Amino acid sequence: MPVVEGSATKRTRVYADVREEASGVPSLLESLGVLVIRKQLPEGDYIIPPDIVVERKNAKDFVSSLFDGRLFDQASRMRNDYEEVFYIIEGDFSRELRYWSDKERQLIGALATLVASYNVKLLWSGSARQTAEYLASLASKYLTKGRGSRPVIINKKPSAQSLREWQLYIVESFPGIGAKTAERILEKFGSLESFFNASLAELASVEGVGESKAARIKELLKAPFKGERRVTTLDKFYGNPAGANSSSDNDK
Questions:
Q1: Residue numbers of the domain that contains 85
Q2: What region holds the ERCC4 domain (predicted)?
Q3: Taking burial as the number of CB atoms within 10 A of a residue's CB, which of 28, 29, 121, 241 is the most buried?
Q4: Predicted TM-score (pTM) above 0.70
């Protein structure tokens, strides 16, 4: 369940993963007047308060992670935990497209899937400086809207003593359910048992759920456990498992 951290300040804030220090982006953000709070984040490279997560990838890694399935897995996890998900692709993406020219159609289709099915937003950056400017602009935008001054949500397991936090954590683990929607669900149904037994129509009636997410929740609740993790690669996604360029590297 999310651990809530907050500050009374109205200064633009960005949470940066400590492993991003070498990129130079956190220091560039500070030069732009942003308050950078360095932490080891469970998902993403940056969190813009309260519920926006940003993953920075260089163009080469972005393309390779599309092929081996890491990107879809990561996008799904982040979409479950945060209301909005951004990817900033840093570098010459056109050059990578030329390198993978024999699979250009698949790459473009995968990008469309990422945006349409995972509700991910993509930004293209030419440098670390431009990445920092994107992050500063996003943080300023949400602060202006009045959202950035609310507590930031960093997704972690709750303590064993907090029943309420465990309930929210469990509901937030369902596809497409963020912190605010999880609270609405529990307020409507009153308990996890009632939530699990709710009909498709009852789930869909909750603000922030709708028919599509409700159907995914019911599908997950009813699906038998098979015990084998299946990785979606780009070639398998397009029905061409032979010749897939897969990698066993783990993404964070």
A1: 2-153
A2: 13-93
A3: 29
A4: no
